[in-house]
Design a protein that fits this description.
Largest interface: A-B, 87 and 87 residues
Number of strands of chain A: 5
Strand order of the largest sheet of chain A: 1-2
Number of helices of chain A: 6
Structural class of chain A: alpha+beta
Oligomer: homodimer
Radius of gyration of chain A: 19 Å
Strand content of chain A: 15-25%
Order of helices and strands of chain A: HHHHEEHHEEE
Distance between the termini of chain A: 15 Å
Helix content of chain A: 25-40%
Chain lengths: 150, 150
């Protein structure tokens, strides 16, 4: 079976496991140490250990020592990790709109406004709406419907 | 233990399970029927069945009958489902930049450009960069670091 080649699926292979994006949320908040992450996320220790290892191996986080004796590390975002900010903000906006009465967190942007994150086309500045996007596939045989039979 | 109240965590409760966002990707491609989703995603049937049920219950997809005998359904995006487009596009962009040599899919926008999706502040039009966002918490006691001890 040939599944659709897709960067969304690939990205979810890195950050799609339960708790991975919440780890990144904590690091964006400036929470970089294991025990504080455990408290704020409410995740089991063994699972969070596995998620952190995976995120480090994938180049999203890096381990930085803050104590030699005993050896202790904290987790910092790499450039690739920082570039996941739009994913988190898009999820936050959706959750705020559809799942909660009032946003638990409001982000003030340096422009002075409370952040309302919108995803726009870099070329024209407009939000892509239904019907405005047409896919082109690299792999021969693939269409929007799937792999064609011929 | 009091975990951080967070719309990202809430949103992941709806779309954060393995294959859920790939189901939505397929519906955005116009693939609305179970067997075609199975082929394109490469997911086990029982898991995809559970994901579809959860997405319908959460109001992200709706079942629309297309045959009476036998009874057959296809899955359509609700308004809430369509508003997940930015999440998928942000993940796609990140995967394209960090995980693949060449994008497997390029989306042509109706403005004429190949889509480069950027997440900007609605008020000022700029991308939020590191250090430009300051969180305000609704629940007393919470800070960026976590629940304060006092």
């Amino acid at each position: 079976m040939t599944r659709r080649q897709c960067s969304i699926a690939d990205a979810l292979g890195v950050v799609g496991e339960k708790y991975s994006l919440l780890v990144l949320r904590e690091v964006f908040f400036g929470v970089r140490r294991f025990d504080a992450m455990i408290r704020n996320i409410g995740a089991p220790r063994d699972i969070l250990t596995a998620r952190l290892r995976h995120l480090v191996e994938a180049g999203v986080l890096e381990k930085v020592p803050y104590s030699q004796r005993p050896p202790r590390f904290e987790y910092h975002l790499t450039d690739a990790g920082r570039e996941l900010r739009p994913v988190l903000l898009a999820l936050m906006k959706w959750g705020n709109r559809h799942l909660v009465d009032r946003p638990p967190v409001v982000w003030k942007h340096s422009c002075g406004a409370d952040l309302d994150p919108v995803l726009v086309c870099h070329a024209c500045g407009e939000e892509p709406v239904t019907g405005s996007l047409t896919p082109r596939f690299r792999d021969p045989g693939w269409t929007a419907a799937g792999l064609s039979a011929d």
